[in-house]
């Protein structure tokens, strides 16, 4: 049995981007979504994940290209080991690259969660190797990363409004999302959220799950994890971050954090603070 391991680090010589590196076999991610673009490469094995309502498979040598707010999980496709690396690219940075090197006036996104482009996968793998070399210079890495992102957007990109996860939500669902975002730290009930949406709890639960791809609780949990990460980045202790985000305690937060992101809050704290 392999030793499963995941690390998160900030690349000081590459625009301070967060780099995630993982080796898994039995670990399964809970359904979650990120605030940034996830751009990575599969280095070994086959990972499968559910995204956009279907099962996606990412074998060795493929690119992982997941947009912000796209709900997904993650696991081994064949019960074997899989390894990959991912850069988390902030929305604003990717748009600057897209506007400056591809096309102005577009809201750039990745077309598919898994991208088959061997040439770009090789280039991204080379970038990861360069990034790990302490002798690599900032200019060298930037000169490699930006063309890779631009080429992906040119070959395999689309506009934000064309993707299903960014289509306009039904008004009751939009109201519910706003309600949850505003009161995520509170002990909300299904009746509380359904009332804000002006629907019965049963009608609301079906409508929300169909529109969002997750349950109201899963959406609430993601918002709490967002708040926890914000608190950690602001320098709060893990215990204070847990309480500020609406978790019962630090242990409760840690369990949900690891299930969603594959690392502990302590690992995240060491990477961002």
Automatic annotation (TrEMBL):
Keywords: DNA-binding, Transcription, Transcription regulation. One of its GO terms (molecular function) is DNA-binding transcription factor activity. The keyword Transcription regulation applies. Gene3D superfamilies: Homeodomain-like. The keyword Transit peptide does not apply. SUPFAM superfamilies: Homeodomain-like, Regulatory protein AraC. Residues 174-271 form the HTH araC/xylS-type domain. It comes from Desulfopila aestuarii DSM 18488. It comes from the Bacteria. This is AraC-type DNA-binding protein.
């Amino acid at each position: 049995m392999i030793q499963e391991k995941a690390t998160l680090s900030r690349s000081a010589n590459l625009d301070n981007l967060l780099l995630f590196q993982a080796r898994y076999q039995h670990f399964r991610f809970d359904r979650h979504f990120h605030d940034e673009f996830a751009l990575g490469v599969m280095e070994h094995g086959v990972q499968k994940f559910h995204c956009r309502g279907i099962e996606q498979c990412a074998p060795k040598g493929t690119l992982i290209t997941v947009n912000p707010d796209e709900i997904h999980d993650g696991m081994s496709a064949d019960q074997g080991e899989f390894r990959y690396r991912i850069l988390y690219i902030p929305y604003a940075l990717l748009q600057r690259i897209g506007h400056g090197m591809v096309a102005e006036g577009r809201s750039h996104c990745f077309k598919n969660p898994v991208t088959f482009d061997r040439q770009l996968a090789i280039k991204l793998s080379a970038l990861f190797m360069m990034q790990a070399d302490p002798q690599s210079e900032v200019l060298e890495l930037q000169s490699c990363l930006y063309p890779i992102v631009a080429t992906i957007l040119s070959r395999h990109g689309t506009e934000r409004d064309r993707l299903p996860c960014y289509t306009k939500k039904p008004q009751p669902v939009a109201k519910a999302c706003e309600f949850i975002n505003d009161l995520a730290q509170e002990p909300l009930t299904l009746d509380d959220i359904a009332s804000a949406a002006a629907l019965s709890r049963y009608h609301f639960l079906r409508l929300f799950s169909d529109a969002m791809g997750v349950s109201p609780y899963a959406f609430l949990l993601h918002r709490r994890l967002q708040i926890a990460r914000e608190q950690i980045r602001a320098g709060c202790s893990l215990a204070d971050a847990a309480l500020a985000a609406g978790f019962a305690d630090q242990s409760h937060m840690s369990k949900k954090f690891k299930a969603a992101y594959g690392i502990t809050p302590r690992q995240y704290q060491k990477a961002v603070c």
